[in-house]
Amino acid sequence: MHLNNKLAIVTGGASGLGLATAKKLTESKISTVIIGRDEAKLKQAATLLGQFCSYRVFDLNDIAGIPGLISSIVNEFGTPDILVNNAGINQKKPFAEVTDEDFQRIIQTNLTSVFVLSREVVKHMAVAGSGSIVNISSMASQYGIPYVIAYTASKAAIEGMTRAMATELSPQGIRVNCVAPGFIATDMSAKALDNDLNRKQKVLSRTPMGKLGEPDDIAEAIFYLSSDAAKYVTGVILPVDGGNSIGF
């Protein structure tokens, strides 16, 4: 894949899809900086991933602190070649009960921080004349899922932003793509689906492959889009969902 000696940043890299992605990158000898809020989890992940992994403790809600975060990473490691905007939060709540604060909190974490982080990284990628950014969307952007209005709004915006970024940045050598995971077997999804068996059955019944995906499935898609194998791919929204988005 010709990714050796490159530098990647993965937000939310201490667990779930982010950890699977960081594992794939570090196994390919790509220096990877994982970002998250929980230092204990980050340390555990860095120990697991080995010499090619470093971490930064940072809350992406601290929008004003993001430029300093990227500057510190660049000063220590150099210009990032890959940015994976994976970190995100969700909330299941009836539409009429979602407060302004609820909505803004999810938009800030899932959308605004992605914009600011990408902007700061792009400043350095543009000077280098190359780079790959992979955003993470969701099936919530493909169709209407009840009780997740703020999450849905944030992920639909991520897909639009991916296309706009790709159009503007690709002439500068920076590719921008997006992976839209289906229902993946993580701790977060297990908690949600195991507590709602009707929802779980609905998910499986409309997934042609008839099963949940694995975190590695997402990691492999992100790795492909980050690599030279996808050097002519930009602005793509890639569902990795067992056919869920086209299931009947």
From TrEMBL:
Transmembrane intervals: none
InterPro entries: NAD(P)-bd_dom_sf, Sc_DH/Rdtase_CS, SDR_fam
SUPFAM superfamilies reported in the protein's UniProt record: NAD(P)-binding Rossmann-fold domains
PANTHER family registered for this protein in UniProt: SHORT-CHAIN DEHYDROGENASES/REDUCTASES FAMILY MEMBER
Family: Belongs to the short-chain dehydrogenases/reductases (SDR) family.
The protein's name in its UniProt record: SDR family oxidoreductase
